[in-house]
Specification:
Strand content: 5-15%
Strand order of the largest sheet: 1-2-6-3
Structural class: alpha+beta
Helix content: 25-40%
Low-confidence stretches: none
Number of strands: 6
Mean pLDDT: 94
Length: 239
């Protein structure tokens, strides 16, 4: 089984998904399980959570080679790759996809359990090596008793940050070390015409952690426009 884990990890990394974890579903905190219970998922039928993420630039290049084959190409590529990993390397034929989905999963808590991330003033998870330049791409529930991967304990990089460049770079003061992200101020500014934060967060760009893994301009524009379009629809529906 350990060989399966190694082969699975290597395959995913070859497709740009360089973050991978197997978590024990039965020992997870209730705050993580509650959204699944509300969706009436029979949690007793499953033993493990497969968590897949991507950091840096490689996944974007692999996605472009694969092709933008749906309205949500990142999700599509992530699921195709994740499902191939489950079938061919874990030899699993039955699973439940819980992300991407309509279930409001607390993904940051999954990342913390996996040892991938810590909280940051930006409201985003921050990885000790990759900074904020990573994302959760797929989460599956499986019945099989797959070995749980070890979670490495790391120190939050923001705890030793003295200059707080993310705070200083935010043009509307939405980012703070002592308070939660002022989401309304952030959204309002992003929606302004010619806003420099429309498709990229200036505070995020200012963070020095993982700077070498920063997304390309093409990738930033793609994700930024997807986010901005979602925000525009949300504001229109709210009004």
């Amino acid at each position: 089984m350990e060989n399966q884990l190694t082969r699975s990890r290597n395959f995913l990394a070859s497709q740009g998904f360089n973050l991978f974890a197997v978590l024990d579903l039965q020992t997870m905190p209730e705050t993580i399980l509650q959204p699944l219970r509300q969706d009436e998922i029979a949690l007793s039928s499953y033993q493990r959570v497969i968590l897949i993420g991507a950091a840096g630039l490689e996944m974007w290049e692999r996605l472009k080679a694969f092709g933008f084959k749906s309205d949500n190409p990142v999700d599509h590529f992530s699921l195709v790759t994740g499902e191939k990993c489950l079938q061919e390397f874990f030899e699993i034929n039955k699973w439940l996809t819980i992300f991407p989905s309509n279930i409001p999963l607390p993904l940051q808590q999954f990342g913390e359990l996996a040892g991938w991330s810590h909280r940051s003033p930006l409201g985003l998870s921050i990885h000790p090596e990759y900074g904020t330049w990573f994302a959760y791409r797929a989460v599956f529930l499986i019945e099989d008793d797959v070995p749980v991967t070890r979670s490495e304990k790391t120190n939050p990089p923001c705890d030793t940050c003295i200059d707080t460049p993310c705070v200083n770079a935010c043009p509307v003061g939405a980012v703070s070390v002592s308070e939660s992200l002022k989401l309304e101020s952030c959204m309002n500014y992003r929606l302004k015409e010619t806003s420099p934060c429309a498709t990229r967060c200036l505070a995020r760009m200012a963070c020095p952690v993982g700077r070498e893994y920063r997304y390309t301009d093409e990738q930033l524009a793609y994700h930024g426009n997807v986010s901005l379009n979602s925000l525009t629809r949300y504001r229109a529906e709210s009004d």
